[in-house]
From TrEMBL, chain A:
<dbReference type="InterPro" id="IPR015323">
    <property type="entry name" value="FlavoCytC_S_DH_flav-bd"/>
</dbReference>
<dbReference type="InterPro" id="IPR036188">
    <property type="entry name" value="FAD/NAD-bd_sf"/>
</dbReference>
<dbReference type="InterPro" id="IPR006311">
    <property type="entry name" value="TAT_signal"/>
</dbReference>
<keyword id="KW-0285">Flavoprotein</keyword>
<dbReference type="Pfam" id="PF09242">
    <property type="entry name" value="FCSD-flav_bind"/>
</dbReference>
<dbReference type="Pfam" id="PF07992">
    <property type="entry name" value="Pyr_redox_2"/>
</dbReference>
<keyword id="KW-0274">FAD</keyword>
<feature type="domain" description="Flavocytochrome c sulphide dehydrogenase flavin-binding">
    <location>
        <begin position="354"/>
        <end position="421"/>
    </location>
</feature>
<feature type="domain" description="FAD/NAD(P)-binding">
    <location>
        <begin position="37"/>
        <end position="141"/>
    </location>
</feature>
Automatic annotation (TrEMBL), chain B:
<keyword id="KW-0408">Iron</keyword>
<protein>
    <recommendedName>
        <fullName>Cytochrome c domain-containing protein</fullName>
    </recommendedName>
</protein>
<feature type="compositionally biased region" description="Acidic residues">
    <location>
        <begin position="179"/>
        <end position="234"/>
    </location>
</feature>
<feature type="region of interest" description="Disordered">
    <location>
        <begin position="162"/>
        <end position="243"/>
    </location>
</feature>
<keyword id="KW-0349">Heme</keyword>
<dbReference type="InterPro" id="IPR009056">
    <property type="entry name" value="Cyt_c-like_dom"/>
</dbReference>
<dbReference type="InterPro" id="IPR036909">
    <property type="entry name" value="Cyt_c-like_dom_sf"/>
</dbReference>
<keyword id="KW-0479">Metal-binding</keyword>
<feature type="signal peptide">
    <location>
        <begin position="1"/>
        <end position="25"/>
    </location>
</feature>
Length: 422, 321
């Protein structure tokens, strides 16, 4: 018996070119109709939520297999609080046990090596093949390479876990007179307020908690603070953060901790740091390119179903999809529910909801005691075929930092985490 | 290769062994674990037999038939609804030389399948299992019949399932993984320390390291890691999903699910923020709450993104209407 390869019976018959007649050779009856199989690749906020809600709403009418290479997920949400010692990586770690056991999702810890759109088959590094009726890709982001950048020396800490701990240990080693330099990627990137939040949290920690005389410099590849400009601008002045917009990162010396950048294409300038945190520009996770469903850096989708506009029966959700909605865990969870509903409808021959809504919310700590929030609701505009901010509501809405918001941040994240992983 | 069949790995498959060692028809005790989900009864009559079910999530159920003095011994076993199960029946279970292990294939009208998914109680009637090992087709002599034993169900049973991904029968031959014998050494993989006879114990072979009972479900996701018939941690498996076989369009459900990021799945909050599940069935309170917050509050800032009709639909769903 070969445990390495799993074909569905239907697929095997297809390969053998035998069709229904094959079972008739041995049995007078045909095998029962196979249940539809949804294969989900990527177990972050969007992929985990999608898997859960497919089973929650579809029950035993659908089989769901979640392929995720890691056995533990570390949430990037709240991970800036690891840097100032308010949280640990283990506080932000989630297993796939509940999804597997409570919702009867098949969890496979493996890596996808190929997607065959004709036979609707996903191949895994371990040798297994999965035949899908619908494939959902939720690979998150990948980074666009920067010359000389070695993440083991200059962490991005934009995917949480070991990278977060590495940056934390470097920050702990910084002394009086030290210089913390971080770079902010060009939009669109994962978690719009995140980099500004990080600059504030780190500055507050080094200056106020540790009482160090440290310089914090932010090189922003954007022309201005992209979100909550009032909140972050005010905090930047309060912390004495040096903010340099329009700074395109062109190279990094990872050993010397030197970042080279150009402002509006002018002469290259160098900045040396004691701790350097380069968050590179981003594109969809590699899987989107492997499956050939990208257009440029992202995957174009129909936002009613998140089905790819370039391949049928393949859906892309979360940070990798190419709508104008922000890239973040909360809205990834939101998109996943619209996608799950659309897939279940489609498997039952029903058109997707013509007017879905999604929402985004993010609490951003700016110190050890205060946080701000940012929120918006998106609606489907049939004239444009896009999800856009609900008109007339003056979105996005935000709130100045407060201690109340800091407490609410954990009420928000606690329910978001449990709605995704439990 | 193994020296003795009974030198099992640790406590793996102890209950199976207990079953094998017990006398034929030894009392009909069932080790069925209970969950809060609906259960159905699978029943029938057999020659003296152990009935085992290998189910979704690595769950394991077993019972013995009861010796009532006739040649048809009754059995019944409770199975939670919504579970896919392979059924295996073993006669002469106390003697490895004469036992006959019959995985069951179910025939229902014009379809058949090796997996049962009960939609109600199911009575199989008399299952005329073979008791004589010399009369079965068993090419490798392991006591397991080569082709599953066919049992015909009532046409309206709707109990035959065909999962697209069957972890419990990786090669799809109808013989559950625990009764496979990869290296034909006379020991099932689940009993064999070295399934592929490569000289390295299974726990050093990567593909087995994480599956104690070798039922095909990795330990992390196996609800009964040691196949003792009891769920390992019932606290992690509360009220699970109600199987839905037909999708019905519910506008309010999708909208209400968009509240769950902050208020918890189905409106049941796990933090000190409010639960918005309205147990009283009165949807007006949810609508009132949505209307009363200012947009300086995050609830108000969210609420203005939804129309009156949308608020009504999601409130009705959250209040069970």
């Amino acid at each position: 018996m070969n445990k390495q390869t799993q074909f569905s019976r239907r697929h095997l018959l297809k390969l053998l070119g035998l069709g229904v007649g094959f079972s008739a050779l041995k049995h007078t009856t045909a095998f029962a109709a196979e249940r539809p199989h949804v294969v989900v690749v990527g177990g972050g906020f969007s992929g985990a939520t999608l898997s859960k809600y497919l089973k929650k709403w579809g029950g035993s009418s659908v089989d769901v297999t979640l392929v995720e290479i890691n056995s533990t997920y570390v949430s990037p949400i709240l991970s800036n609080l690891v840097l100032n010692g308010q949280k640990s990586v283990s506080d932000l770690s989630f297993s796939y046990q509940t999804l597997g056991q409570k919702y009867n999702i098949n969890i496979v810890h493996d890596r996808v090596t190929a997607v065959d759109k004709t036979t609707q088959t996903v191949s895994l590094a371990g040798g297994q093949s999965l035949v899908y009726d619908r494939l959902v890709l939720a690979p998150g982001i990948d980074f666009i390479e920067i010359a000389g950048l070695d993440y083991d020396k200059v962490p991005h800490a934009w995917k949480a876990g070991a990278q977060t701990d590495l940056l934390k240990s470097q920050i702990e080693a910084i002394g009086d007179g030290g210089h913390f330099v971080m770079t902010i990627p060009k939009a669109p990137y994962r978690c719009p307020p995140g980099p500004y939040e990080r600059a504030c949290v780190v500055a507050d920690y080094l200056l106020n908690a540790k009482g160090l005389n440290v310089q914090v410099t932010v090189l922003d590849q954007n022309s201005a603070i992209t979100v909550e400009a009032d909140t972050f601008g005010q905090k930047f002045s309060e912390y004495g953060i040096s903010y340099i917009p329009n700074a395109e990162v062109v190279a990094v010396d990872s050993d010397q901790k030197i970042v080279s950048y150009q402002i509006d294409g002018a002469t290259t300038q160098n900045l040396q740091a004691d701790v350097l945190n380069v968050i590179p520009n981003q594109r969809a996770g590699e899987l989107v390119f492997l499956a050939g469903v990208n257009q440029g850096n992202w995957a174009p989708v129909n936002p009613l179903s998140y089905e790819s506009t370039v391949a049928s029966n393949i859906h892309i959700i979360g940070d990798a999809q190419g709508t104008a909605m922000p890239k973040a865990g909360h809205i990834g969870n939101s998109e996943a529910k619209v996608c799950a509903d659309a897939i279940l409808r489609s498997l039952n021959g029903i058109a997707p909801d013509p007017a879905p809504k999604t929402n985004s919310a993010c609490y951003s700590p700016v110190s050890r005691t205060e946080a701000s929030w940012l929120t918006a609701v998106y609606e489907y505009r049939s004239d444009k075929g896009q999800m856009l901010l609900v008109s007339g509501a003056n979105y996005p809405k935000s709130s100045a930092p407060s201690t109340r918001n800091y407490q609410d941040m954990f009420n928000w994240s606690g329910n978001l985490f449990s709605d995704t992983f439990a | 290769m193994k020296t003795r069949i009974h030198s099992l790995k640790g406590s793996v498959l102890v209950p199976v062994m207990a079953a094998l060692l017990s006398a034929c028809g030894g009392g009909g005790d069932s080790t069925t674990s209970s969950t809060s989900t609906t259960s159905y009864t699978l029943s029938g009559t057999v020659p003296g037999t152990v009935i085992e079910l290998f189910c979704t999530g690595g769950l394991y159920y077993r019972t013995n038939s009861t010796d009532n003095g006739t040649s048809e011994h009754p059995f019944s076993i409770q199975v939670p609804s919504g579970l896919d199960c392979h059924v295996v029946m073993t006669t002469n279970e106390d003697d490895t030389a004469t036992r006959v292990i019959s995985p069951i294939r179910f025939i229902e009208g014009t379809t058949s399948g090796d997996v049962l998914n009960l939609k109600g109680d199911l009575a199989l009637g008399f299952v005329a299992l073979e008791m004589d090992p010399s009369k079965i087709i068993d090419s490798n002599g392991d006591g397991v019949i080569d082709e599953p034993f066919e049992v015909t169900l009532p046409d309206d049973a709707e109990a035959v399932a065909d999962p697209s991904y069957d972890a419990l029968d990786s090669d799809g031959d109808g013989i559950p993984n625990v009764y496979e014998d990869d290296d034909n050494d006379g020991y099932f993989n689940s009993e064999d320390d070295d399934d592929d006879n490569d000289g390295y114990p299974d726990d050093q072979d990567e593909d087995h390291a994480n599956d104690q009972d070798e039922d095909g479900v990795e330990d992390d996701y196996d609800r009964d890691v040691d196949n003792d018939g009891y769920e390992d941690d019932t606290t992690t498996t509360p009220d699970t999903t109600t199987p839905v076989t037909e999708y019905t369009v519910q506008k309010g459900r999708l909208l209400a699910s968009q509240c769950a990021q902050c208020h918890g799945t189905d409106g049941y909050s796990t933090t000190s923020w409010d639960s918005i599940r309205e147990e009283s069935g009165d949807s007006s309170e949810i609508i009132e709450e949505m209307n009363e917050y200012s947009t300086a509050h995050i609830m108000g800032a969210q609420a203005i993104g939804y129309t009156d009709e949308e608020r009504q639909a999601l409130a009705e769903w959250l209040s069970g209407n």
